[in-house]
Amino acid sequence: MIMKFYFLLLSFFFAACTDKKSNTIKVSLPDFFDAHNWEVTNNSDTFYIFFSPVHDILVETYEYKIANGDSVHTQKNAIQIFNDSLKWKFKENIYTVTHIDSNKISLEFKNIMYHLNKISDDLMVLESFNDSFYFRRTLPISTFLVRRKYDYLNGTFGADSAEVLPRKMRKHNKL
Length: 175
Description:
Shape: elongated
Radius of gyration: 23 Å
Number of domains: 1
Structural class: alpha+beta
Strand order of the largest sheet: 2-3-4-5-6-7-8-9-10-11
Order of helices and strands: HEHEEEEEEEEEEH
Strand content: over 45%
Number of helices: 3
CATH topology: Lipocalin
């Protein structure tokens, strides 16, 4: 009798250890998230997020807003392995990544599925049944922040331009 109990207990242990996760990851995170700055909009809010790939299973994210030409309410988050699954902390919520391929990431939060679809290199859409976030790629983060400050101080709108202006060549006086 005791032997049957141990055998049954051992069977449950091995069954629990071999339980396969439903997560499917077909590409590494840097293949999906390059080091880019994105403007994120939905019906009520606009903020910015910068993705900084560190290695295959870690992407640091920096979420911020712009006020008076400066970045404010900055939060450093990440997409990383936590408790044997890939997690993304985004907008104060922690989403579980259930699927990644080259054009789509599926996420779950409180039994609600979200899908981040890469429409083009410059546009991504995060959708659920009741909300959508539009990710529009902007200038590199350093150029973007400098232009935002300049725009605020001078009343211009250069930060919204995707064009990076070349530096003027200095003319050197020959002696």
